[in-house]
Design a protein that fits this description.
Keywords: Cell membrane, Membrane, Transmembrane, Transmembrane helix
Order of helices and strands: HHHHHHHHHHHHHHHHHHEEHH
Number of helices: 20
Shape: globular
Pfam family, one: MFS_1
Radius of gyration: 22 Å
Helix content: over 70%
Number of domains: 2
Strand order of the largest sheet: 1-2
Distance between the termini: 48 Å
Strand content: under 5%
Structural class: mainly alpha
Number of strands: 2
CATH class of the largest domain: Mainly Alpha
Protein name: Putative sulfoacetate transporter SauU
Subcellular location: Cell membrane
CATH architecture of the largest domain: Up-down Bundle
CATH superfamily of the largest domain: MFS general substrate transporter like domains
Largest sheet: 2 strands, antiparallel
Membrane topology: Multi-pass membrane protein
Length: about 475
């Protein structure tokens, strides 16, 4: 948890000497905050996001001890992993509303504290039911992190660097997922998986305490000039009307489905089912499989930044998304149709598939540009929910498929699934990605410009 440690040290310094960031020049409402102060706010929020991302992917690395200790089959393990996504997805739209009303600080403190409690509960869970509850708490707690982190970046940094800070924020999350691969596997073997996760829970508690002490919603709270004007929070009625109205534009539904396949399949593979496949049918050791998954996570992060920049420069949304989605489809087609492909080919295609899945970030801008400006925030929340829908359905669905095709073989109390079972399971993902790609092709191109036509989809005609 390198970023967490670094940000914790920086925040502790701020706590010990609260005025340190302002010593070079006194607070002045005519000036924006110094970079060091802005970075301290962002670093703590990014550390909380990193910790939650770490916990998101732990079931894949710990699949064998979890199946053994809780006596799970594949469907139950998939459900355990997906409980995180159930609560994460449910929190997205309320988080946007809460950020407008209360600001990001309270959400980061609450979310990180809830994540810590869920992690500690999971580490001590005596039964499968308690473990499910704990995963739900982690998902709900981390569900507020991304939107709140972007809100911190928007409020504490100049608009011209918001894209850069968004990329760095995504990179922080990816680092958390990478640390949850081989490093977590090594920790679990040295100290045990329960003890390792308990340590992560304590780190989250420290982060929540530091966030409460250090983070401020806006620069003006410390006497500096804000980058953003004050916003009037939306009423509950306005939010509900926005949720109803946003579905009147065709792209909303199409771009809701698209990431559920293109990103959802990637999340399902890297969160849970990729590791056992690589170990059982590609002859990889646990650390080797973990590093392969880590490489895919890095490729996804790099792809997100590259596709986003390419889309902006090209002034096109559809083309980058289609190309990236096609790369992802090729990866899952190979897993389903030729799982014993030569190692260099398979692993190269998997990395390319992960790189292509990063094109899903284009969908956030595309969704906002597909509706009138007053619905842009709602469209973003709906789109982010679609990102998670795929994983929360696919994780247990693939487990059910694997159990249905299980031949009865087990090793050390852990079920072993033959190659055919994995082929069928990955075939489900292949079909889902293909449907998602068709939705991208059917969506209206916005040419990277806000949507000016206010006529809903039912009367706008085919495009």
């Amino acid at each position: 948890m390198g970023v967490a440690i670094c940000s914790a040290g920086l925040a502790l310094l701020e706590w010990t000497v609260p005025s340190l960031s302002c010593m070079s020049s006194p607070p002045n409402t005519a000036s924006h905050p110094p970079l060091r102060l802005s970075l301290s706010m962002w670093a703590l929020a990014a550390a909380a996001y990193l910790a939650g991302f770490f916990l998101r992917v732990t079931p894949g690395v710990l699949n064998a001890p979890l199946m053994r200790d809780f006596h799970l089959n594949a469907a139950q393990l998939g459900n355990l992993a997906s409980f995180y996504f159930y609560f994460y997805a449910a929190s997205q739209i309320p988080t946007g509303v809460a950020n407008d009303r209360w600001g990001p600080k309270k959400l980061i403190v609450f979310g990180t504290f809830l994540t810590a409690m869920g992690t500690l509960l999971f580490a001590m869970a005596p039964t499968y039911a308690v473990a499910l509850l704990a995963r739900g708490m982690i998902g709900l707690g981390h569900g507020v992190a991304w939107v709140s982190l972007l809100e911190i970046a928007a409020r504490w940094f100049a608009p011209r660097v918001f894209g850069t800070m968004s990329g760095l924020s995504l990179g922080a999350g990816t680092l958390g997922a990478v640390l949850a691969q081989a490093p977590l596997l090594a920790m679990s073997r040295w100290w045990g998986w329960r003890e390792s996760l308990a340590g992560v829970g304590l780190v989250c508690l420290l982060l929540a305490l530091l966030a409460w002490r250090v983070i401020r919603n806006s620069p003006h709270e410390l006497g500096f000039r804000d980058y953003l004007p004050e916003r009037v929070p939306s009423s509950l009625g306005q939010v509900l009307r926005g949720l109803r109205d946003v579905w009147g534009w065709r792209n909303t539904a199409l771009l809701f489905v698209a990431p559920s396949g293109i990103c959802g399949a990637f999340l399902t593979f890297t969160t849970l089912w990729g590791t056992p496949f690589l170990e059982q049918h590609r002859g990889m050791s646990g650390p080797q499989a973990s590093w392969m998954i880590a490489a895919m996570l890095v490729a996804f992060s790099v792809g997100g930044m590259a596709w986003g920049r390419f889309s902006d420069r090209l002034h096109r949304r559809k083309l980058p998304y289609v190309v990236g989605g096609g790369m992802t489809l090729a990866g899952f087609a190979l897993l389903s149709l030729w799982p014993q492909a030569p190692g260099v080919l398979l692993f190269g295609v998997l990395l390319a598939s992960a790189l292509g899945a990063g094109a899903m970030v284009v969908g956030f801008a595309w969704a906002k540009e597909s509706v009138p400006q007053h619905l842009a925030g709602t469209a973003t929340g709906v789109h982010n929910t679609g990102v998670m829908i795929g994983a929360l359905v696919q994780l247990p669905l693939l487990g059910w498929v694997l159990d249905a095709l299980w031949t009865g073989r087990a090793l050390g109390g852990v079920r072993q699934y033959d190659e055919h079972a994995f082929q069928v399971a990955f075939g489900v993902l292949m079909v889902w990605v293909a449907v998602a790609l068709a939705c991208v092709l059917a969506a209206r191109e916005t040419h990277a410009r806000p949507y000016a036509n206010l006529v809903p989809a039912r009367t706008e005609g085919a495009v």
